[in-house]
Amino acid sequence: MREIVHLQIGQCGNQIGSKFWEVIGEEHGINSVGTYEGDTDLQLERVNVYFNEAHGGKYVPRALLVDLEPGTMDSVRGSRIGKLFRPDNFIHGSSGAGNNWAKGHYTEGAELVEQVVDRVRNEAESCDCMQGFQFVHSLGGGTGSGMGTLIINKIREEYPDRIMNSFSIMPSPKVSDTVVEPYNATLSIHQLIENTDETYCIDNEALYDIGNNTAIQEIFRRIGEQFSVMFRRKAFLHWYTGEGMDELEFTEAESNLNDLVSEYQQYQDATADLDWEPDEDIPEEEVPSSSAVTMQRTVEVKTETVTETTRQLDDM
Ligand SMILES: Nc1nc2c(ncn2[C@@H]2O[C@H](COP(=O)(O)OP(=O)(O)OP(=O)(O)O)[C@@H](O)[C@H]2O)c(=O)[nH]1
Ligand SMILES: [Mg+2]
């Protein structure tokens, strides 16, 4: 069987992750205490992808629930499906990360991470042919984002040939008023680019404006702009450097995110500008070397040949 190990981290991760288990349990005909009550063989055919079979025919989610504070876990434990999970797989600290990515990644989270990796190892060893890992976390707080990316890095190191996926909730000022969320998100994206195979970005702003379709580039651009406004003034930076973080990591994360925005811009232009004609009036010399420059990729389709040209145009 191709098993998946699931991890849910931080408050948002545990809320959304628990909803996932409610839905997946229902699909497989597994009730809130792990007993099969379904009516079609199909429900059990691939049940081992997400569930372990325990003694007494109980199905137990292959899930780890992690937070740096006890509150979220208590509420999952007390919820309707609280008895579904393996008690050993609830792992929590006592202090929380207080919306500080550095606490999740470097200090508080680093103290708890080995305990998490031990449980991951334990789950991985009982798999027959593990596919990989899936993470559910928000990028706006301190635990899901900071500690979440730390756990991802550790697991990646130990299981480099397994698939690593994340379901990452992107912050929006419309849903939360914690001012440092763009910092936490940008620092996380910087890590996720390196260490996951796939990241599914779920935009809290789109959840707020239900029905609005937000292009991924717009989310990154929004977070990047908010990041830059604060970082230019070094606002709240001491919260992070106080935990031992280097300012350089901020600079790198920012430029990495800007690259990502430019890359998506290229894809967008490549599809939008199929009939673009080179404009001779634009002098190529006058391109400023600042970050305001975007690359515009133009695909010219002719009857017999397809050529791809890259030009630099002024963003303004
Ligand atoms: N959609 C959704 N977003 C949530 C939920 N809970 C928190 N968030 C979002 O998650 C971000 C805050 O992160 P949390 O998950 O609360 O933080 P954490 O990972 O527990 O980290 P700390 O509390 O800072 O230690 C904000 O952007 C919130 O809008 C939830 O239940 N649903
Ligand atoms: Mg929290």
TrEMBL record:
It is found in: Cytoplasm, Cytoskeleton. The keyword Nucleotide-binding applies. One of its GO terms (biological process) is microtubule-based process. PROSITE patterns: TUBULIN, TUBULIN_B_AUTOREG. It comes from the Eukaryota. Residues 47-235 form the Tubulin/FtsZ GTPase domain. One of its GO terms (cellular component) is microtubule. Residues 299-316 have a biased composition (Basic and acidic residues). Residues 278-287 have a biased composition (Acidic residues). Residues 278-316 are annotated as: Disordered. GO terms for molecular function: GTP binding; GTPase activity; metal ion binding; structural constituent of cytoskeleton. The keyword Manganese does not apply. Keywords: Cytoplasm, Cytoskeleton, GTP-binding, Isopeptide bond, Magnesium, Metal-binding, Microtubule, Nucleotide-binding. Its cofactor is Mg(2+). InterPro entries: Beta-tubulin_BS, Beta_tubulin, Tub_FtsZ_C, Tubulin, Tubulin/FtsZ_GTPase_sf, Tubulin_CS, Tubulin_FtsZ_GTPase. SMART domains: Tubulin (SM00864). Dimer of alpha and beta chains. A typical microtubule is a hollow water-filled tube with an outer diameter of 25 nm and an inner diameter of 15 nM. Alpha-beta heterodimers associate head-to-tail to form protofilaments running lengthwise along the microtubule wall with the beta-tubulin subunit facing the microtubule plus end conferring a structural polarity. Microtubules usually have 13 protofilaments but different protofilament numbers can be found in some organisms and specialized cells. Tubulin is the major constituent of microtubules, a cylinder consisting of laterally associated linear protofilaments composed of alpha- and beta-tubulin heterodimers. Microtubules grow by the addition of GTP-tubulin dimers to the microtubule end, where a stabilizing cap forms. Below the cap, tubulin dimers are in GDP-bound state, owing to GTPase activity of alpha-tubulin. Belongs to the tubulin family. This is Tubulin beta chain. It comes from Chanos chanos.
